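Encode chain A's predicted structure.
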Amino acid sequence: MEAKSITPVQAGERINEIDIIRGVALLGILIVNMSFYKYHVYMERIPTKYSEGIEQLSAWFIQLFFTGNFYAVFSFLFGLGFFIFMDRTLQKGLELMPLYSRRLKALMAFGILHLVLFWSGDILLTYSITGFILLAFRRKSLQAIKKWIYGLFITACVFNIIASLLKGAAKVIAIEEYRAIMEEMISTAIFMYTEAGFFELVAYRLINEIPYVIFSTLLWIPQVLAFFLCGLYAGKLGLFKNIPAHISLFKKLRSWGFLIGGFFLLLLVLFGSGALPVHPLLRISLFSVMNYIASIFIFPAYVASLILAAQADFWKKVLSPIAAAGKMALTNYLSQTLICVFIFYGFGFGLYGKVSIAEGLLITIAIYLVQVAWSNAWLQKFQYGPMEWFWRLLTYKKRQPLMKR
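Encoded structure for chain A:
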């Protein structure tokens, strides 16, 4: 098998709508991640804790339209990408397991380096671990995959409830102790992220952040796998092989997704704002769970909306530049970290803890526009983004031509 021609997906084989969705998801992910790049405890993110005005409005904007939704889109695309990779590998008569195993191991290495050296919010390590689990579903029927999706969503929801209740209990039962611990954590984090050198900060994060991240990864796997399986299900169903034939389905996904997801977001607003008074312990849990359930319905609505928009000539032209950013998603995801680390950490501009939510949104848009521009410029001369090229090199164990002929 290995003697056959082992080549990655070529430009002509790509599905443009997938690249557009991935490119838009990069913006959504950066909008949410920006809140964590610039301040240590934005996870306490019920928007009403901010003063009224532009700050609270910006917090609600991020919470309602982005938090949870684009991470779900990105995870869905990973599952869909797995199906496409599997389908095309088998069509070429190649062995799937060695190639995909090397692909995931390379992604795992990227994730570990990203997590340890730069940022605790890395998702690549979680994706690589869950990707190995996804392999077990490659031969399962659509009906079996659907049952697993339902079961995993319910499991993830239960995990979400338990985790948020435990966190809420710590705040409600031991409020003074909790406040003291949080204040000490915040002051220490601000000092380290603004004053420490690179290696000092890495050592601090290895002790204070990464153990928590690794534990959280285990809790994240059910919901990540559920979104992966949604992508695998869509691939097996052939939704992206013949998009025009499934327009009516995409319209239903858009309408029902926004309707049902919007209902849960309304509940989130009512609980978060205090309009529906509940015990403080339940308030934290309900806020978190409503956000998660809403994302289950809103992410397919986002995907369907972008697919439908890409069928119209005007929107296809508008969205076309974003596809270039999507083709270089790994490069752009990692470069977002490098840019933000330089902006916020002490060995860069040291703006950690000094940027408001609204200002963070402006910084996000500026970074994203630069990434879209440089992605289009890069792909004028090269076939792949630099990290995509390196990933392919590690996957296929064969040097791939980078320059366009």
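Confidence is low (pLDDT under 50) at residues 1-5.
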